[in-house]
Sequence to fold (110 residues):
Amino acid sequence: MGKADVPQGTLDLMVLKALALGPLHGYGIVQRLDQITRGTFQINPGTVFPALRRLDTAGFVTGEWGMTETNRRARFYTITRSGRRHLEGQMKEWKRRALAVRRVLRAERI
Fold:
């Protein structure tokens, strides 16, 4: 079975969660999400970078230039306090939605 597309509306949430675990550069975020999801989703760096720009513009992340473990220059992102609050709210909402879907999937004929 191949990798699935990232569910619509979840990329920013997943990027923020990855950054809540520690600062990362864009490709590092892709790697971390692949690891966390155990390779379930097709996470393309070409979609992560626009998400980082959106999150930066919203004030949810900040970026700073640094060197990668392979001595390449890269922008490392960190979640902000505002980003953590936003992440908490988004996680609550997704848990509520997931519970509703779980209820539907468990439903039996009445």
